[in-house]
Amino acid sequence: MRDEYIIKPKFTDESTAEEMSYADRVAADLASSGLSGEKAPKFYIQTFGCQQNVADSEKLAGMCCTMGYERAEKPEDADLILVNTCAVREHAEKKALSIIGQYKHIKDSKPETIIGVGGCMVTQKARADKLKNSYPYVSFTFDTGAIQSVPRLVYSALKKGKRSFVMSENWEINEGMPSLPSQSHIAWLSIMYGCNNFCSYCIVPYVRGRERSRSAEAVIEEAKQLIERGAKDITLLGQNVNSYDGGMDIAELMHKICALDGDFRLRFMTSHPKDASDRLFEAIAEEEKIVKHLHLPIQSGSDRILKLMNRKYTRDAYLEKIEKLKSLVPDISLTSDIIVGFPGETEEDFEDTLDIMKKVRYDMVFPFIYSPRTGTPAAKMDGQIPREISAERMKRLLELETEISNERNERFLGRTMRILIEGESKNDSTKLTGKGDTVRPVHFPKPENHEKLIGTFANVRIKDVSTFSFEAEII
Ligand code: 5AD
Ligand code: SF4
């Protein structure tokens, strides 16, 4: 099964190839134990955070398979557990630490289990040190620049029982890692890594390093492989995809990917308003394969707060871009991230945020209560907002969001929509779920031959819309 499912990149660099050679050594070692079938060694990956982490975890899964592990359904069944952590808000770190805490029982009952922790949380030295000193059952940690070293770290733990804590700060591109997508029809494709923007609240530039773009050839080659193995929905990923510079800009890259043979659709995230260009908007308008959706985080509607956030645009500049995009793609679905309770946010600043939501009319917003991150400038700013005030503002924001979303959803009522059928509905086993050009899932009754439909496109008619999802019938 390994060869059939793993994506093997054509573009490889020497240092990654060297690290991958340890995967073969682990495989040889595991094979010599003679365990196969039910007893074959197994891996389990727990992922927190953004789609970038999901994409990284697919690479980790590719490496685990190359090392000879098979996927386990639950961590208790695994011989190798990897936790891919997030650091963007305190809550994400707390959740990861709590899960890692629970894995102690697994290690206690099965001491040969190898537990490794990677991702943004352990790219902060203090967190890696905490795991080293207070979680003795964790075999290794690896920062976001050292994913390719996992086979070597596993080898070291397996053969020498050695604990390792890697802070590589390697911000080079590492081409050549295998990948095992978790679904064949939905693909996450990293086109660049890191961020140069240093928004004052954000930990990402410190834990993901500076911006670097993969070459367009490598990206296009990977897109081709993904399409060949059945990808129907491809999302180009980067912290700030609009500053992609891999020999061409993102607009040209998307035109080139759209020109590849195959029935698929293309998405991209995340965009920074200061870099979202007319060329990008024109590409969305021109290319049928690009989904008519733009996630363009505004973060705040107050110019004063935007300045404190170091966002480098004003609300008027943002609105101007939105108007331009709406003139090119009138039916565009817009979504945004918004931070509530940034230090110094007054009632008036918050009302500016509500006001811009009313002007833009987002299909959906992802609101977050500000979470101070050690090492970022905002964590030291005066005027930290008490939790009760942030929570009360969040409540008001969500009420407005629901009102606007409901109104935006109405436009789809009665429409025919082409959706990609993703699988059975989570809440109703008599229904299938899919997604069209909008952000809301679409549910419809299972037709007879439903197994064959998963991962294919279908036309449905929208019969009913609610805040979070649409009900439809298949045509
Ligand atoms: N507190 C709250 N939200 C944050 N985000 C990033 N950093 C923080 C923080 N310190 C949000 C931003 C970003 C999204 C991915 O997470 O809105 O766009
Ligand atoms: Fe964080 Fe700003 Fe970079 Fe986004 S653009 S990852 S919010 S620093």
What is the topology?
Elements: H1 2-5, H2 14-32, E1 42-47, H3 51-66, E2 70-71, E3 80-85, H4 90-109, E4 114-119, H5 125-134, E5 140-142, H6 150-160, E6 164-166, E7 186-190, E8 192-193, H7 204-208, E9 212-213, H8 216-228, E10 233-237, H9 250-258, E11 265-269, H10 278-286, E12 293-295, H11 303-308, H12 315-328, E13 333-340, H13 347-360, E14 364-369, H14 387-410, E15 416-424, E16 431-435, E17 441-445, H15 450-453, E18 457-465, E19 470-474
The protein binds 5'-deoxyadenosine and iron/sulfur cluster (SF4).
Q: How many angstroms separate the termini? A: 36 Å
Q: List bound small molecules.
A: 5'-deoxyadenosine, iron/sulfur cluster
Percent range for β-strand residues? 15-25%
CATH topology of the largest domain: Rossmann fold
Number of helices: 15
Number of strands: 19
What is the average per-residue confidence, as pLDDT, rounded to a whole number?
Answer: 95
Number of domains: 3
What structural class results from the helix and strand content?
Answer: alpha/beta
Quaternary state of the chains = single chain
Radius of gyration: 23 Å
Unreliable residue runs: none
Return the CATH architecture of the largest domain: 3-Layer(aba) Sandwich
Overall spatial form: globular
Look at the structure and give the CATH class of the largest domain: Alpha Beta
For the biggest β-sheet, the strand order reads: 2-1-3-4-5-6
> CATH superfamily of the largest domain, called what?
Methylthiotransferase, N-terminal domain
Largest sheet features: 6 strands, parallel
